[in-house]
Design a protein that fits this description.
By secondary structure, the chain is mostly helical.
Length: 119
């Protein structure tokens, strides 16, 4: 395609230019996800969109939603937070659903930046 043809795109689409350079994750870019006995467990305010795509690909490739969600949790909240939830007998269904929904929102790009899970 010639240079003049590129500049005359009828839909004005400007393809994204993606850099593979790693971005530093700053702790200030985290939001609270849940608390156990006053200890905060947080999640990055912005998870990489590729994480959501890997989650969806696992479901597409035959993983159960539970298996895919476990993968997503391990990647998004980390082993310490996941272990804390697994070991806490007091976590009820409502709290767990809220936590799962929040992680999915952030991972799939639907959560507003910087909002807490109680907003």
């Amino acid at each position: 395609m010639s240079a003049s043809r590129k500049s005359q795109r009828p839909d004005n689409y400007d393809p994204p230019k993606i850099s593979t350079a790693k971005k530093r994750t700053d702790s200030a870019q985290r939001v609270p996800l849940f608390y156990i006995d006053g200890k905060e467990y947080s999640v990055p305010a912005n998870l990489p969109p590729a994480l959501g795509l890997r989650y969806m690909r696992r479901v597409r490739d035959g993983a159960s939603h539970v298996e895919a969600a476990m993968f997503l949790f391990m990647e998004a909240i980390g082993e310490d937070a996941l272990n804390a939830l697994c070991e806490c007998e007091e976590v009820d269904r409502n709290a767990m659903e809220k936590i799962v929904e929040r992680v999915l929102e952030i991972a799939l790009g639907g959560a507003p930046q910087g909002k807490s899970p109680t907003d």
